[in-house]
Amino acid sequence: MSYRADFIISTIGMIFTNISGFVTFWILFKNFPSINGWGYYEMLFLYGFSLISITPVQCFFDNNWNLRQQVYSGDFIKYCFRPINLFFYFQSEVFDVKGLGQLAFGIGTLVYAWIKLGIPCTVLMILKVIIFLITASLIMISLQTAAAATCFWIINSFYVLDLAYKFRDFAKYPMTIFNSVFKFIFTFIIPIAFIAYYPSLVILRPDEIPLLSWLSPVFGIFFFFLSYKFWMYGATRYDGTGS
Q1: 38 φ, ψ to 5°?
Q2: DSSP-assigned states of every residue in the chain
Q3: Is the distance from CB of 99 to CB of 55 less than 8 angstroms?
Q4: Other beta carbons less than 10 A from residue 175's beta carbon
Q5: What is the pTM assigned to this prediction?
Q6: What's the half-sphere exposure (Cβ side, CA atoms, 13 Å) at 25?
Q7: Which residue, among 42, 66, 71, has the nearest Cα to 177 in the 3D structure?
Q8: Of 198, 242, 225, 239, which Cα lies nearest the Cα of 79?
């Protein structure tokens, strides 16, 4: 309401960014029938799934981008004197409504791919999608939260946060296209495989679901807990700028 032009321009920019990803897949599959056994609509499903799962971090945790400025300026100290959870207090100050445009585009892409793939639309299937979307969201939240918290120790932590954010671009691809080294890294160290690939297998390929897909909720909760503890560890040891 305060900055309408900024909101409109940013929303349009975000929509066109997501459309560019859609067009990229279209151009790619005009030249190749499949990528390591993954067809066009399966890839679109992964893309839509990833867009939806990263929306919560866009909407509810966007204040992580302001954390380093708050720490450097000393303004972060104000959060340390309120009788409320420090992490919740800081994150709840900002809600990025522009993320809702990304959510709408993600839902549209997912539904379109769902219909084209002929996936049965049952109550159980919808519940699975909701549960795995929530747990997948925890992974992206964990990555951004942990990266943002490095500002308590690293002076120029923006590049750490920016790098963690850019890893999301790999989430829309199946892990089978990567070699064993990157597959291990993207599963257990930088767990972007749980943003879309492993959760989506429960819906896309119900006859060949790996154990890691069923463990996605566990991984999501585990990594979120670690990132939360890491963030709180840095925050509770923050003592201001000394000025």
Answers
A1: -105, 125
A2: ---HHHHHHHHHHHHHHHHHHHHHHHHHHHH-S-BTTB-HHHHHHHHHHHHHHTHHHHHHSGGGGGHHHHHHHSGGGGGGGSSS-HHHHHHTT---TTHHHHHHHHHHHHHHHHHHHT----HHHHHHHHHHHHHHHHHHHHHHHHHHHGGGT-TTTHHHHHHHHHGGGGGGS-GGGS-HHHHHIIIIIS-GGGTTHHHHHHHH-TTS--HHHHTHHHHHHHHHHHHHHHHHHHHHT------
A3: yes
A4: 21
A5: 0.84
A6: 22
A7: 42
A8: 239
Cα separation of 2 and 233, whole Å?
Answer: 35
> Which pLDDT tens digit goes with each residue over 79-127?
888 788 999 999 998 888 777 878 888 899 899 999 999 998 899 999 9
Torsion of CA 221, 126, 96, 151, to 10 degrees: 20
**Phi, psi for 35 (deg, rounded to 5):** -120, 105
Q: Which amino acid is at 44?
A: L
Please list, residue by residue across 85-96, b when 16 or more beta carbons sit within 10 angstroms of its beta carbon and e when fewer do: ebbeebbeeeeb
